[in-house]
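If you are new to this repository, start here. Below is one unmodified record pulled from the training split, so you can see the exact layout before writing a loader.
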Amino acid sequence: MKNSLKLRIAGLLLVLIGFSCTDMNDYPVPDSLQINDFVWKGMNTYYLWQNDVPDLADNRFANQSELNAFLTNYDSPVSLFNALRIDNTIDRFSVIYSDYTVLEGVLSGTTLNNGMDYGLRYKTGSTTDIYGWVRYVLPNSDAASKNVERGQIFYGIDGVPLTADNYKSLFASDTYTINLADYDNGAITPNGQTITLTKTNLSENPILINNLFLEGSHRIGYLMYNGFYPNYDSQLNDAFGLLASQNVTDLVLDLRYNSGGSIASATKLASMITGQFPGQLFAKQQWNAKAQSYYESNNASQLENRFVTGLNGLNLNKVYIITSKATASASELVINCLKPYITVVQIGDVTTGKNVGSVTLYDSPTFGKSNVNPNHKYAMQPIVLKIVDKNGFGDYTSGLAPTTAMVENHGNLGTLGDGSEPLLQEAINEIVANGKNAPQIPANYQRDITDSKAINPLRTEMYVDPK
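And here is the target side for that same chain:
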């Protein structure tokens, strides 16, 4: 979705904000309240739950003077922003950043990162003590240069054992040392080994693996795709071009570590998997009542995401998608919105359950990047829309359940992209042997409580693209 959809309300802000231009001009905004004023007006205009937050009501303030008085009650933009959010059991994902350049980098796949992607789990029998495990390592990163490997277990950072209370602060340092441990059927035993890692500005190419497997008459493409970053859309199209040139008959799409990203990129991915539905409705967006009414009256098509033409498509009628508890937002969008068109076989664990999307709001006359206020760099990423399939279904806040349930076992993780890696092996088995004897998740199996992407909330966003 382009910037024109995101910010087409420009010019109608006086209609959507709850008081008139005259009222605003009669009472100017003091310099000390500029950022807070931006926060309130942006949330009043776009926030998905605007109607459910009394302080965001259009009639809450008669004029700018009353709004100014309200804004003085908050000592920071962050405290105001959080006060204007609905209960966090409903809105788990809206965020505000003091520096929009950091926000923009995260949304494009560029972060301060040492290259170690990890998951965190509770130790057996504990609800406080946790340990980490390496899921994969980014090429050309510090972790790659230090020979960090998938499957390594670590129990502490800088000698401090990890707990549910301290892990965020321990991972926040630019340089830290992981304390390694051995894993034996759930037992975590420190082994005295350490690795020191340093973060740098690192861009992650989300196309981690693109392989072909020959199994009898089946030519099985395997693509591990770890983030919906628009800057890599052309590389994704090239990857599908390679798969098409190899005459693949089946596709295994691995989204187990993909926590989301661009709605437009998700729509393109679905278009590459298929190709036989050019221009047809893929997904629909539902905004707050105020914005929804405006879009429906002026250009209802801007609420629609349609299959994209001109891409390398595989024309498949069935796709096999690997998921985990970390599979979120735009990944779930692909799964949910493809189902009305083709058969989706989901292998792995239940997904996160994020069916809402956000938008970047800047302090400018249109909330876009043009003419942004030069006096600060605050920007917001509030939830502004719910996304549904062509039939209007999008109620999966408890996650999307797999067709075949499996989870990663630290005792047998396997090598990503290798045909013997358990989840990929099961997908291949589903293709060539109809999924006979698929292993099931033990009743007492421990799942990740969080991971390196979820620790940074922006890395699990589904968002409307800025230009």
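Two things worth knowing about this chain: Residues 1-15 have pLDDT under 50 and may be disordered. DSSP finds 15 helices and 24 strands in the chain.
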